[in-house]
Amino acid sequence: MAYSDKVMDHYENPRNVGTMHKDESGVGTGMVGAPACGDVMRLQIKVDEQGIIEDAKFKTYGCGSAIASSSLVTEWVKGKTLEEAAQIKNTDIAEELALPPVKIHCSVLAEDAIKAAINDYKEKQSS
Amino acid sequence: MSSPIYLDYSATTPVDKRVAEKMCHYLTMDENFGNPASRSHKYGWDAEIAVEQARADVAALINADPKEIVWTSGATESDNLAIKGAAHFYAKRGKHIITSKTEHKAVLDTCRQLEREGYEVTYLDPQEDGLIKLKDIEAAMCDDTIIVSIMHVNNEIGVIQDIAAIGELCRSKKIIFHVDAAQSAGKVEIDLQKLKVDLLSLSAHKVYGPKGIGVLYVRRKPRIRIEAQMHGGGHERGMRSGTLATHQIVGMGEAFKIAKEEMVSENKRILALRDRLLKGFEDMEELYVNGNLEQRVPHNLNLSFNFVEGESLLMAIDTIAVSSGSACTSASLEPSYVLRAIGRNDELAHSSIRFSLGLFTTEEDVDYTIKLLKEKVEKLRLLSPLWDMYKDGIDISAIEWAAH
Known about the structure:
The complex is a heterodimer of chains A (127) and B (404). Chain A is an alpha+beta fold. Chain A has helices at residues 5-12, 64-77, 82-86, 90-97, 104-126; strands at residues 27-34, 39-47, 53-61. In chain A, strand 2 (39-47) and strand 3 (53-61) form a beta hairpin. Chain B has 404 residues and is an alpha/beta fold. Helix content of chain B is 37%, strand content 13%. Chains A and B meet through strand 1, strand 2, strand 3, helix 2 and helix 5 of A and helix 8, helix 10 and helix 12 of B.
């Protein structure tokens, strides 16, 4: 399968790979996908006191598009408010990476990962 | 070293230069281009001589009578002709067929078609090592059973089924036995004077011959009848009509002749390389060999690198040409049905790589492959949340994943 240069770039030089301590305050963790389906994404955000995402980390088990999609969203969410980050749509990701139709689900998964990380953060704040 | 290094010989092989050279003599006006069915002139007679020599060469590799060789377009057509042809011819005798879940799609989809026509098919589960238990075949047999179709060597995991024993069982019950031998010809000895196989499918392009040509072996003693699936000029004793592709046939004949001469020594060399490859990976964690390692053709190694997804691994190792059981590399978006059938979970099926070695594989290629795989698997594991969880001692199968 021929991938776009942007997918190849993110795949070969993934941004913000890593793990944050999930119990740390200000950290929200989103884990989506399933091993059986061939992709699992874990996206983590660190939110400062003003409600702005100051850092993001990811790890992904999946194809090149899944790795690129999650790497891209770690770049995109940084510096955004939670509300702004929640506005990121899978279509934006798919367009930026020029994903072929068969790989659209990777961008859907990345959008889900952002939402899951935000929800996790909010739940932790309210508890 | 050719780039990328070709390690996908089970998908197809390059045509042997000696084969290609010989084929060239059967195309142009200057040489032999005749229709082997033309009985009225030298052009036809010369082509017929070439076709009959090739028929004898193919027959020799499998120790059969040349009269038992029917030319087809490849193993897919041979499988279709064998199973549909015998099922249709013997429909009055019964309507039950036995096969296995790890057969090639050419057998499985042919059986599905026969189910739509009213036949009944039993799809046997192999054991975890990929081998079919003789007892399971026997247990599935009933008065209505007319055909058993079991492949000799599996295309994905390379395991060798005991077709000698299955043949004895089938013969004792007067059930027709079809074997897809596309992956075994030239790799494993096939002696049809000893083996009780009635129908056997062969392909040229897995044995350094050209694509687009194959053979169905149809036993004469005891005589097996099949109904033609392709109608026309009555070629191949009415079993498969269509003008014979002389150059392709000559190519297959030459390839099989070379295979007969060089098989034993080449197998020894390939096995040493395969063992070297496996040994190179030995110290890796969470590495699984798929399929029985002893009952296996020498050139196949199918491994799962757990917690790394196959397609992303293929991207990382693009300087070698291999194939994967990952869903992302298949048209159907399903992980390998063969690995699923032998009880591998989805993760391991997604993480599998098939290495198949061949004529041009060198020690240098193998050493390079080991180094490359180790480096890239480690890199991708550091990127994998599943690897993290495994390292933290979390049981991934105990987590309730949301399927998508």
